[in-house]
């Protein structure tokens, strides 16, 4: 049981470190890495939003994806109708 607890603790500590450690690297700072780099800057990568704010953001993103898909479908239907109306012999 002790080995299991130790393994679980090490896994949790490793995943917590990996989730938050992002380094900005390179001479211009345009490269990102999960491993430390020369002259790199450690950046905070945690999400400061509450659970309610994250849920609302997901809901809004889903609504925007649906609206975009609806708009695309309507545009394709209108284009198809316009092509059909311009077809020779009609």
Write the layout of secondary structure elements.
Layout: H1 2-20, E1 21-25, E2 31-33, E3 41-44, H2 51-86
Antiparallel strand pairs: 1-2, 1-3
Brief digest:
By secondary structure, the chain is α+β, with helices and mostly antiparallel strands.
Shape: elongated
Biggest sheet, in brief? 3 strands, antiparallel
Low-confidence stretches: 14-18
Structural class: alpha+beta
Number of strands: 3
- Summed over residues and divided by their number, the pLDDT gives a mean of 82
How many structurally independent domains? 2
Percentage of residues assigned to helices: 55-70%
Task: Please report which band the strand proportion falls in: under 5%, 5-15%, 15-25%, 25-35%, 35-45% or over 45%.
Answer: 5-15%
For the terminal residues, how far apart are their CA atoms? Answer: 81 Å
Q: What count of helical segments does DSSP give?
A: 2
If strands are numbered along the chain, what order do they take across the biggest sheet? Answer: 2-1-3
Topology as a string of helices (H) and strands (E): HEEEH
Query: What is the gyration radius calculated from CA atoms?
Result: 25 Å
From the structure above, extract its key features.
90 residues, alpha+beta, 2 domains, 3 strands, 61% helix, elongated
What does this structure look like?
By secondary structure, the protein is of the alpha+beta class. It has two domains: 1-46, no CATH class; 48-90. 61% of the residues lie in helices and 13% in strands. It has two helices and three strands. Strands 2-1-3 form a three-stranded antiparallel β-sheet. The longest helix has 36 residues, at 51-86.
């Amino acid at each position: 049981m002790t080995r299991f607890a130790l393994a679980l603790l090490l896994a949790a500590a490793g995943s917590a470190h990996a989730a938050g450690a992002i380094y900005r690297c390179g001479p211009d700072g345009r490269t990102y890495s999960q491993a430390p780099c020369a002259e790199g800057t450690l950046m905070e990568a945690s999400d400061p939003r509450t659970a309610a704010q994250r849920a609302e953001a997901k809901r809004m993103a889903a609504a925007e994806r649906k609206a975009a898909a609806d708009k695309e479908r309507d545009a394709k239907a209108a284009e198809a109708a316009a092509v059909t109306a311009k077809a020779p012999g009609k």
